[in-house]
Model the fold of this input.
Amino acid sequence: MILPFVAKNVYRNTAAVMVDQRYDLTGFKPSAAILTDSGNENIHIAFMTAAGISTANYTTVGGQSLLSHCYTFASEPHNSNTGATTNAVISNIRTFVTQNGNFLAECAAVLNYENNSLGRFQTTTGITVSNTHVGTTVSFPNPDLSFSQFEGVFNGSLTGSVENWQTSGASANSENDHVIGLGANTSSISASVAKIQGRFIMLLFLKQVENFVYPVFLLLQFITGTSIQALYKHFNFLNEKMGEELKQKGLLFM
Done:
């Protein structure tokens, strides 16, 4: 959780020490793809625009063309479509993440992609949408990881077709919950991440629109040089304005 800045003492270690190196970004040049298979790509395009991410650093593309270009990250804001075309897209996404790609599914795409037998990115038998009213009474099991770094309050049951879910069988691919309910709602998941083949390859399933901004653009800032402070500013703007504006424009199908 990002808190308001408060002046603190800064200490310098004078002895040699071994420290954890979480990620090595040497030579890392990410490129993002916003998938168009649901026709809702404007949702994530709006996030890119609000965060100051240049169109030179991302593109829109159909999932069937995902493997034809060198992308390091792809996202789908909402996709409830089924059939042969969607199956082909899910198969491509599965190949994409096993080849070191990162993928984020949001809202209806969470249920659609995970419960398709061609997906199964985070579980063995899929998920069940519970849409339990957990509100902001939530827990963050992995607060030290980048996906859980955001500003503001996280609502675990924000209005939408998929607000939160439960694992039907067992988790898979080192699945880790990032937002869960408390008390009787600890089985209700609002955000989770998995790794494929034990590498820095994450599948991100996320319902919360506003809080999606920080972890995704933490990745994309390495392309543009956009400062963290600027991202905070844009994030606050999204918290206050973006959700309502997207609804008014008919772009929010959560």
